Amino acid sequence: MNGRTRVVVVGAGFGGLATAKGxxxxxxxxxxxxxxNFHTFQPLLYQVATSGLNPxxxxxxxxxxxxxxxNVRFRRAGVTAVDWDAGxxxxxxxxxIPFDRLVVSAGATVNDFGIPGVAEHGFPLYVLPDAVRxxxxxxxxxxxxxxxxxxxxxxxxxxxxxxxxxxGVEVAGALAELIEKVLDRDFRGSRVDVRRAHVVLxxxxxxxxxxxxxxxxxxARTTLMRRGVEVRTGxxxxxxxxxxxxxxxxxxxxxxxxxxxxxxxxxxxxxxLDAPTGPGGRVSVEPDLRLPGHPExxxxxxxxxxxxxxxxxxxxxxxxxxxxxxxxADLITREAVGEGDVHEPxxxxxxxxxxxxxxxxxxxxxxxxxxxxxTPAWISWLGLHLLYLMGFRNRVSVFVNWAWNYLxxxxxxxxxxxxxxxxxxxxxxxxxxxxxxxx
Amino acid sequence: MNGRTRVVVVGAGFGGLATAKGxxxxxxxxxxxxxxNFHTFQPLLYQVATSGLNPxxxxxxxxxxxxxxxNVRFRRAGVTAVDWDAGxxxxxxxxxIPFDRLVVSAGATVNDFGIPGVAEHGFPLYVLPDAVRxxxxxxxxxxxxxxxxxxxxxxxxxxxxxxxxxxGVEVAGALAELIEKVLDRDFRGSRVDVRRAHVVLxxxxxxxxxxxxxxxxxxARTTLMRRGVEVRTGxxxxxxxxxxxxxxxxxxxxxxxxxxxxxxxxxxxxxxLDAPTGPGGRVSVEPDLRLPGHPExxxxxxxxxxxxxxxxxxxxxxxxxxxxxxxxADLITREAVGEGDVHEPxxxxxxxxxxxxxxxxxxxxxxxxxxxxxTPAWISWLGLHLLYLMGFRNRVSVFVNWAWNYLxxxxxxxxxxxxxxxxxxxxxxxxxxxxxxxx
Lengths: 439, 439
Description:
Number of strands of chain A: 26
Shape of chain A: globular
Low-confidence stretches of chain A: 419-439
Oligomer: homodimer
Number of domains of chain A: 2
Strand content of chain A: 15-25%
Mean pLDDT of chain A: 89
């Protein structure tokens, strides 16, 4: 040891960034490890998936974020194991890096709940490549229907979104808008009748946005239905193929696109931590967010199963991750300056929840029981997301895109590009593109 | 036939778009076929490759371009063959579409001139996926050097650009700037010394920018050298591996990145046209741009070998393609309104040439012998490219990016994303990523 505490942060999401920023003035050396060289603003991924924003609008290079914070290093790598005795983290390139404090904020991965076909055919929406892949697939379905209009009868333009939480509601609403306002004009005069496209939102419990107040739930449901989304609550998916979704009870929906927003589970790394896990493989933590049995390590964000004090767990949202990061940074700082062991418990302050349904439609619930819906909620949502977005350039770009989309009903971002697309990519082949080289 | 002339345009590049737009008021039905659903503004590809712009900034959805032109349809497809007797074009999905007039403007592909290793290891820069792939590779080299600094000795941070035309000069200049001004700050304090990165520009003849005036050539060379680029003219590449570039004469450069801007040749479709071909497989055309022996077909843009009236061929630049498109649209229109066969020859008006070298450095040559260099040329270049860029949204986005880059020396677009990148992509693996799925 060189005298300064070596802090290794796994994951450059909301939790990891908050931890590193919170350590700016601490006598520590921070290394952030992530397999992507950028931070992703996850709350706007659904807009990338529906051609409202470009991938770069919701991503920011990690090295850029910390150019002016001298005690932070970045390593682009995956993490394969932790050696608790040696106090080292094994990186995917075969190197071991030492730590005095470890903060694991590696997020989650899609949870298919063991339902047959979801892993193969479902489109998750958790990381940026997911969003690009879904965008290409959605646009590809319309191009494929233009090449062969008969696929529409087979569900070629039916989009089933599973999960009635904020992500599912946002995807369903944005998709309905993309189809009605943008693609309908794009394909005017072509051989495909875009108005035959169909969005179905499936939720297991009886209402959308379960944690919200019933009036917000009702607003979300009626707004979606008015915009043409078929809302099916109280049912769940039994099996999925590339062209069919079978619901519990036997109903079968011909459908070539299944968006899976039904839930997440901890990434495999959670198992490598050798720790007790709760629902969805999330890691059980002490009240101060330490890993049981390993006081030098903390787990925060979507990976952690944090008691909400009411018998449940805190939700996997940005605020929980960010506040967890601030808390952990505070404990590490105090220990680094010589306060000894600090075990102050983490206290989450709920700043409210929001979900947007589409143009001038959203619901927002603030602490103290204040509820907004419709245009006021939508405006608040826009402002808040611009405010939290990383980097001036991204803010301007998102603002320009949003203003453009709002005023013209256009979506400039409807490109079928990336996610392995090479020269040879063509309609109906975009899944195969993933395995193609472009050389 | 339904009475209206059926025009099929292959390729949505500068030539194809100019043709379709030129037919706006003609009594014809136009179908544009392209394997990408977007038009690419090729002159700015090098900025995507060097993280100055995002892919979406230089791409525009074809369906969006023609939303308001009722006589244009788009088909996202590749073209596999032409049946001259039946008058049909075979699309990659197995469908044949009929035409009365065929305009082939399918562009070019990289020409490796048979040099061993170029096809496998060289990075071309002709279509948008090329630019994304090169960007990811360049950024990946620095991440790999951070993981294992010893690769720098092996050429891990050496970038050889082959071809001293505008593309090669622009890539070399922008790359030197990216390294010196952006990556040097990104990697400050890391294990890799970015100042050891090295850009080499190789050109076969004795001067850069061969068609330009010697004073412009000199300006380009001295500016590049002042910015740290090693300029090697009068030499050519003999062989390439993944880690070495061997020059004619025996010199060997350790190098993990070879940008191939040495030339293009016609796409394989040219062979399917059953036509005489000239240098680089370009299709020889009649003076009115018709395909010899097939007066119902025209070939324009980079695919066509068009006599420049001085014993040479017109260059493969946007202006030649656009003017060719206007010419062909004019002939088709006049024939469609009953003027009979029109064989007016194509006359190219040279509007000048430009190449940018970097920040406040460019050369421009206008008709009449007017030459600009340095800041005035750079400002002209910026304005002209903004003007020609498709779509208000793209213009604003490019302008914001450029202003941001200029004022902050930052490049927000330095994301390692797309081109097959999935969850598991890591430093040093970006070539392999192409074959990975992200699910």
